[in-house]
Amino acid sequence: MLEGCVDWPRETADRYRKLGLWEGRTLGDELRRWAVEYRDRVALVSGERRVTYRELDAWVDRVAAGLRARGIARDDRVVVQLPNACEFVVLCFALYRLGALPVFSLPAHRANEITYLCRHAEAVAYVVPDTHHGFDYRTLAGTVKAEVPSVREVFVVGDPGPYTPFAALSAPQDGPADAGGPEDGPEPHDVAFFLLSGGTTALPKLIPRTHDDYAYQTRVSAEICGVDETCVYLAVLPLPFNFTWGCPGVLGVLGAGGRVVLASGTDPEECFALIEAERVTLTSVVPTIAHMWLDGREWIDRDLSSLRTLQIGSAKLHPEVARRIEPSFDCALQQVFGMAEGLLCMTRSTDDPETVVTTQGRPISPEDELRVVDPQGRPVPVGETGELLTRGPYTLRGYYRAPEHNATAFDEDGFYRTGDLVRMTGQGGVVVEGRVKDVIVRGGDKVSATEVERHVSAHPRVRQAAVIPVTDPVLGERVCACVIPAADGAPSLKELKTFLSSRGVADFKLPERLVLLDSFPLTGLNKVDKKRLRADVGESRG
Ligand code: J2J
Question: What is the CATH number of the domain that holds 504?
Fold first, then answer.
């Protein structure tokens, strides 16, 4: 396995193979099979563009050859920061075929995140759009290239500026135009790509996902969702989100011969129009979008009768909201509790309505192992709340190049400590009750409190900072910075935001509330007592 990654123990891997969970095919080969089977069916729709399976397969081969001609080779890391467009899908499959490794970043990431990712992964290339939502990614690429010498190439979808146009990759290449024979391609057990952790640490962690494990996750989740060639999936959330890419998402739907429609945003007017026009049957959103869509249902007159299932996950869906979904959309609700690290839980179409509304589902694989433990690591009885630990056939055994963090993020049996507080129901369902990890879930976005604290503390007029979530009716939670100011006075919220932006911090991480304090409550171990801080700040709001 790739240097810096942690493999499953050999006997465990053998068992997953023997059970037929890991089928021994790479994601690049999978697309080849789908193209043979589904041929002229439409695979991808984006705006006016419609791409069949055969066209997609051929486009991927051309781009793989183009990347290869520019020296992108097996095990090379490539940071991908593209919006929802066909190029995202094509590029990822081209890299999968070469055995080069996409590192998924979000369009909202800025210099702070991208330079870190490129440096940590020693990326050789970075792929961006020209502009998106008014932001020029070529300028960001300039910063990244200046700061991270390993980044040799920048590919741009659209107007390339000083960089290489993505379109040039699919032009006929000089020399042999093969995309790499099976002899030098990746193995099914190899790492295929990296997902970003929702992270608790000051810097995001990279999650290696193998061809075998990801193919398994997408296949099983597609089966559970009843995905077949009549499925039309609307990709509303960003493609680099595990939920959208593989739960069953893009990969699961392509694997079944369905059609994937790419939305450019989450706005109900655009999405409802697409659902009507493309006869969308399945889509996945976070609770905040579900709220927006429930409201939109009142005034947007579109025919959504094709919709069979609405998947909701990534943050807690409260039962009161959950109960409104089926009557309002006349389709099934599916709750999804997942994590980029692996474990995926889903409610099933055969579950009784109360289970669908009140639980976050159950694991998708019989080989998923779940433990719910107290703070001392002892198992708690069914029905009681504790921290969820898990391991299984598609759950990582270690973050990339993070031995120190891995030593505490996993227990001695290889179980991943999710940081989520859950309760198991008698039927094996999981109910998410809270979390022990220091993360703020804003909409579906995960913000590491430690990371934001690091930046806020760097402000010259901040003596000490503690970042906490505050409850919000729209987003569930928002980022709140609690600050003990320096002697010469505190920054305003606006100044703080400007300061963080100037450090290249992504917008969704910026504090939306500032609370000034003389001191922080401390725990017995002299750490900031965030529980009390949250309670105090919550009260001070009135
Ligand atoms: C409460 N908290 C949830 C839920 C995730 C599918 C769906 C979501 C993600 C995802 C994903 C939750 N109720 N239904 O990767 O494949 C919180 C938990 C979890 C963290 C993981 C997928 N669903 N969460 O959200 O890696 O705290 O993945 O540990 O971004 O989101 O975040 P992330």
Answer: 3.30.300.30
